[in-house]
Amino acid sequence: MGAVLGVCSLASWVPCLCSGASCLLCSCCPNTKNSTVTRLIYAFILLLGTAVSCIMLTKHMETQLKKIPGFCEGGFKIRMPDIKADEDCDVLVGYKAVYRINFALAVFFFVFFLLMLKVKTSKDPRAAVHNGFWFFKIAALVGIMVGAFYIPGGPFTTAWFTVGMGGAAFFILIQLVLLVDFAHSLNELWVNRMEEGNPRLWYAVLLSVTSFFYILSIIGVGLLYAYYTKPDGCTENKFFISINLILCIVVSVISIHPKIQEHQPRSGLLQSSIITLYTMYLTWSAMSNEPDRSCNPSLLSIITHITAPTLAPGNSTAPAPTSAPPSKSGGFLDTENFIGLLVFVICLLYSSIRNSSNSQVDKLTLSGSDSVILGDTTANGGSDEEDGQPRRAVDNEKEGVQYSYSFFHLMLCLASLYIMMTLTSWYSPDAKFQNMTSKWPAVWVKISSSWVCLLLYVWTLVAPLVLTNRDFS
Fold this sequence. Notes:
InterPro entries: TDE1/TMS
Strand order of the largest sheet: 1-4
Number of strands: 6
Largest sheet: 2 strands, parallel
Family: Belongs to the TDE1 family.
Structural class: mainly alpha
Helix content: 55-70%
Order of helices and strands: HHEHHHHHHHHHHHHHHEEEHEEH
Membrane topology: Multi-pass membrane protein
Number of helices: 18
Keywords: Membrane, Transmembrane, Transmembrane helix
Main location: membrane
């Protein structure tokens, strides 16, 4: 009898496998918008894939992964003396698994990017696929993941590494777009609060937050000069830190220039302070991939050196932190990778819950520019009840989508590549797949991304002066 009731209970969920996101919400959940719920579910799928990728880097998974037929044959084998062939796979088996998991995620989201092009309203049949059929979509994703583990190594790995590096660089730019949007939204909120009452309080809050970000940036620059440069070496690092510091000062000055303020009175130092801090993060992230380990100490060793410096006698100096060579076990997350993933999670969640009416992201194509953006769900004629039951998620896209479906999936596709590169520390397999090393291309990709980020932000400031016939209000 219990089994029959269990089957009946399971059968009641079958309609939810094909319906929209609202069916997945329990009765205790607050009413929300369908567009927000759908984005959160896709974000959860990507985060779940990230968690699985992290698990693949643990020691416990090595034995299980080696049981996959052909998984330890070809690529990613480091030949070491006095070690059996089947043990060679232990060295980078975790990285190999991460490549395949994120290959499946990237393919999954790229297919949806193509499928969702030009979707304008939820009345489009393709919108039903985007907002529903969760069981079948997850099953398809799992199937792609399983199949990816049987893809031979060799050329696939080199080609996928190249694709991953380019995609990750583009996602870094998307992170900047989201940070700019967040800064503008925060500034807008505070300006509105100032106009409503007690402007002194909100001016103090705005000044405090802006100063906090700039102080963090200055501290970061000092630490980079102290630990990532040497008087007689590390020339590239000195150049990277100095040029980005100068560019950040220039960007900050531009943001408060009278001409810029005339056309964009809401722009200011708050946005510039966030961009400055992000640029310093990218600078450090780039230098953390430098092949010269003497110019690339690990963050953990720096923290240890600061909090518990080595006691040295008399006139001697405490030794500077050094970075050990990268682990050959494909070990779990290091501190640098953890910070990269933390930035990714923050940007992903913000992109999932942000209001599509925010102008900065709308101008940068994160939301559909041709669609009717609705600020009130009741304007759609949506009801708070459906079939006599409270509606948990309201379809607020009957007259126009709240964000670009295709661009959202493209962002998740690029995010998958960013996760892959971050978890594998941007290490590059050599031509014979005998080792994985940190190489200069990864450094230049990251540092170039920081320059493009600054250029993109400057463009958002000067665009109203250049394109005078376009409405940027």
